[in-house]
Specification:
- The chain is α/β, with parallel strands linked by helices.
- It has 11 helices and 15 strands.
- A 7-stranded mixed sheet has the order 12-10-9-8-6-7-15, sandwiched between helices.
Length: 400
C-alpha cells in the first residue's frame, strides 16, 4: 500500500513538473490553453483518422475480470478482446486498471489521468459511478476520447456514453422464468432500488415477461445496495428461497445468487454472461451482453476518422444484447416457441416491452396508449416497480 501511494505521488509530481515546463516555454510568459495533448504519437482530433497501430486504449474496470469466469467486468473484458482481435491491436495497445471502486472520485480521476499520461487516446470507463470523474477529466483533455457506460453525461466532441436495450433480453428471460415456476414465486436480487433506472427497467421488463405467460406469479425483490457484494448477494438469494421462490434471477455483478440457487436445488436465470458455467444444473438461460459489438464499432470509427460523441444505445437487432441458449433439459415445454415468437416481434420493432400503459405496484399509471417509452426515459426515468413486483423483507441472518 505504501509503495502504491508513493508511485502515485511520484506520478503526480512528474505531471506537475511537466506542466510547469510547458508554461515557462509559452511565448511572452503567457499560459496557453490546455490542449489535452498526451504522450501518444497520434493525438486524436475530430474527423482525423488514427492509424490502427497508433491506437492506445485505457480500460477502467470496477471488478477484476482476470479472476472471474462470468459477470459484469468479465463481459466487458471479453468485449475488449473481441474488438482487439477484430481490429488487430496488440496487447501493448490496451492498458487496464482493475478493482477501481466508484466511491472515491479522486481515485477514479487518478487512473483516468494515468491512462492519458501513458499515451491513451481513447478511454473506456465501465461502470455508472465513473460518470462524474469522466466528465471532469474529459474536459481537461479534449484530444482524448472518453466513453462511459450507462450514464447520461457527455459533450459534443470527446465524451460519450453507451448502453443498450437489455430490457429486451430481460423480458425474454422473464418468459422463461414464468413458464418454469411451480410455486408462482420468483426471487430477484437487485444491486440498487428504484433510484437506479438501469436496475429498475431490467427488473420491470423481467416482471412483464413473467406476467405475459403467468399472470398469477409474483416477483420478490431484495436490494443489496451494492453492485458487487457476493456475500450479500448470496444471503439475499437464500432469503428469497426461504420465502418460497423456486426461480432466482439478479441484477448484480457476481454470479453468487445463481450459485446459491444451485446449492438449494432451485432454478435460476443469469445476467451479464451465460452462467451455465457456474451453475449448469440450475440455470435456465441468461440475459447477456455482447460488448464487442460496441467496442469494435467505436474503435473502428476512431481509426477511420468518423467518431462522434453521439450516445450509443444498442439492441437485440444490433446484436449487443440477447438471450443465452436455453437449457433444454430444464426449461418448461413450449419455452423455445414462446421466446422466439416474442423475440421476432422485438427484432422487427413491432414490440419493445415499455409499450402502452403500464401499472405500478402502488397503483400508478405509466406511459400512454399507443405510446412507447424512449431510450432516454428507460435509462433515466424508470423509478417505479411493475404491478407484480413485491419488495421482500430482508434480515441479514446467516442460514445454519
Amino acid at each position: 500500500m505504501a509503495a502504491k501511494k508513493f508511485a502515485r505521488t511520484l506520478l503526480l509530481a512528474l505531471t506537475l513538473g511537466a506542466n510547469l515546463l510547458f508554461l515557462t516555454g509559452c511565448e511572452s510568459g503567457k499560459a496557453e490553453k490546455n490542449t489535452g495533448a498526451n504522450t501518444s504519437a497520434a493525438v486524436w482530433k475530430p474527423g482525423v483518422p488514427i492509424a490502427v497501430q497508433n491506437i492506445k486504449i485505457g480500460v477502467l474496470y470496477f471488478g477484476n475480470p482476470g479472476s472471474e469466469t462470468s459477470g459484469f467486468s468479465y463481459e466487458h473484458h471479453i468485449g475488449i478482446r473481441v474488438m482487439q482481435k477484430a481490429l488487430g491491436l496488440t496487447d501493448a495497445q490496451i492498458i487496464t486498471e482493475t478493482d477501481v471502486l466508484d466511491a472515491n472520485a479522486s481515485e477514479i480521476e487518478y487512473h483516468l489521468r494515468k491512462f492519458v499520461s501513458m499515451g491513451a487516446n481513447l478511454v473506456f470507463a465501465t461502470t455508472f459511478g465513473y460518470m462524474d470523474a469522466c466528465a471532469k477529466v474529459a474536459a481537461e483533455y479534449p484530444n482524448v476520447i472518453f466513453a462511459h457506460i450507462s450514464g447520461y453525461k457527455g459533450n459534443d466532441t470527446n465524451f460519450t456514453n453507451y448502453f443498450g436495450a437489455i430490457h429486451q433480453a430481460r423480458y425474454l428471460s422473464g418468459i422463461v422464468a414464468g413458464l418454469r415456476t411451480k410455486t408462482g414465486k420468483i426471487g430477484y436480487v437487485a444491486a440498487k432500488g428504484t433510484e437506479s433506472s438501469e436496475v429498475s427497467n431490467g427488473l420491470n421488463a423481467f416482471a412483464m415477461g413473467v406476467e405475459s405467460v403467468n399472470p398469477a406469479a409474483r416477483i420478490y425483490v431484495i436490494v443489496t445496495k451494492n453492485w458487487f457484494d457476493p456475500a450479500s448477494e448470496a444471503l439475499a438469494a437464500r432469503t428469497l428461497i426461504r420465502l418460497g421462490s423456486d426461480v432466482i434471477s439478479h441484477h448484480t455483478d457476481s454470479p453468487a445468487p445463481i450459485m446459491e440457487a444451485q446449492k438449494a436445488g432451485v432454478w435460476a436465470v443469469g445476467y451479464h454472461s451465460d452462467m451455465r458455467r457456474e451453475a449448469p444444473e440450475t440455470v435456465l438461460t441468461s440475459a447477456v451482453w455482447h460488448w464487442g459489438v460496441y467496442y469494435t464499432s467505436l474503435v473502428r470509427s476512431v481509426i477511420n476518422g468518423t467518431f462522434t460523441a453521439k450516445p450509443y444505445f444498442g439492441s437485440m437487432k444490433d446484436g449487443l444484447v440477447g438471450l443465452a441458449p436455453l437449457n433444454e433439459k430444464l426449461v418448461a415445454a413450449g419455452t423455445d416457441e414462446a421466446v422466439e415468437k416474442t423475440a421476432a416481434r422485438i427484432r422487427s420493432g413491432e414490440f419493445d416491452v415499455f409499450d402502452g400503459v403500464m401499472e405500478t405496484n402502488d397503483g400508478r399509471k405509466i406511459g400512454r396508449k399507443g405510446g412507447r417509452l424512449s431510450n432516454l426515459e428507460i435509462m433515466r426515468n424508470v423509478d417505479w416497480y411493475y404491478r407484480n413486483i413485491v419488495v421482500a423483507p430482508f434480515r441479514p441472518v446467516e442460514s445454519r
